[in-house]
Amino acid sequence: MPLKLIPPRSGKTPYYAVRGTYLGRYIDRSTKTRKRALAAKQLRKWEEEIERGEFETRDELTFAAAAINYMKAGGERRYLSPLIKHFGEVALRNVRQQEIETAADLLYPNATAATKNRQVFSPISAILKHAGPNYDFKIRRPKGSRGRVITRWLWPEQAEAIFAGAAQIDAEFELLLRFLCYTGCRISEALGMTCDEVRLVESFAYVRTSKNGDPRPVYLPPHLVAALANHPRGLDRATGRVFRFHRGGGLRNQLIAACAIASGLRRPKRTKRSGPLIRQAHGLDWVNFHTFCHTYATWMRRYAGRDTKGLVATGRWRSEQSASRYAHVVPSEDAKAAALLPTKRSNCK
Question: For residues 43 and 5, is the Cβ–Cβ distance under 8 A?
């Protein structure tokens, strides 16, 4: 097929593309222009380059192929199916800022900026990075993509009450909550951990792929080592996951029930409506699995004396910017100067 202009496709790209074969060279490239006259000029330029033997030959890597390569390398599969269906055989180097924003608006028209960032921008960024520097570029994230920064944590007595409530439900579930609280692991990291990644004699566990895409060593405090040594199913299995649970509504309802017990309510019978009803009834309705990650960071600041750099050094956070949200949980030395302020009992004049 000779070279010809392909007009912009609704929902795919706002630019003209050139597609076809000229003197044995196949082209499927975006012209990066919305104007037909400029696109036609680019087509003639490429024809001249082919005639002079100056046209760069390359095998076109499609988005679908790049996504498959990313998944085969162990990349996160979640959220990729709609993106593969949307972009399909579009050349990966044609997936740029405008195309990404268009995909986010079409796939998730009513979603928040944070959701679009999580389910479109971040997966595409990971695929581009995996494909190599020729494809990677700095993607502008949508305004408000970080969402609401929530850092509520548990006081020690609250955490112990929830652990006790979890123990009434399931001993292994209690162990899971303690593991989250004293390692800072995300729920996905804990549930994906296998027995061969835990070395109790070395107080060590290993997260092969964290949310940041990097492996991470995890230190196990002595009391957590003792708890894991008494794992209800044991950890001497050569294969299998440390925790038998799977993410979903059932696991969330167990946490809700544990929080209800911690608030002094009786453990409810399991019904389809039990989760929402309990959530409205107890004072720990704001607790979720990520609360234990915030608790780990807060306790490391308040009780272990780690500053922002210290939190980053644990490997749980990649940058000081992400760890700095916990700086407010410890009063500064300047704030402690309030102890010197005058009161009625002071002898100030």
Answer: yes
**Is 343 a domain residue?**
no
Listed ranges 144-153, 200-209, 339-348; the one with the highest mean pLDDT: 200-209
Tell me: pLDDT of 107 over 50: yes
**181 and 271 in a common domain:** yes
* 102 and 165 inside one domain: no
More confident residue, 270 or 181: 181
Q: Is residue 167 part of a domain?
A: yes
Q: Please report where in the chains the tokens 């409810």 appear, as a residue.
A: 268
Q: Tell me how far apart the alpha carbons of residues 206 and 83 are, in angstroms, rounded to a whole number.
A: 31
Burial class (CB in 10 A: 0-12, 13-18, 19+), 114: middle
* pLDDT above 80 for 229: yes
Supply the pTM of this predicted model: 0.59
pLDDT digits (tens, 9 = 90+) for 232-257: 998 887 678 999 999 888 999 999 99
108 plus 10 within the same structural domain: no
- CA 70 distance to own-chain centroid: 16
Q: Range of 23's domain?
A: 4-51
Q: Hey, is 62 helix, strand or coil?
A: strand
Residue 121 DSSP code: I
Domain count, the chain: 3
Same-domain pairing of 95 and 182: no
Output the CA–CA distances (angstroms, integers) from residue 92 to 99, 135, 183, 231, in the order listed: 11, 7, 38, 47
List the structure tokens of 21: 């074969």
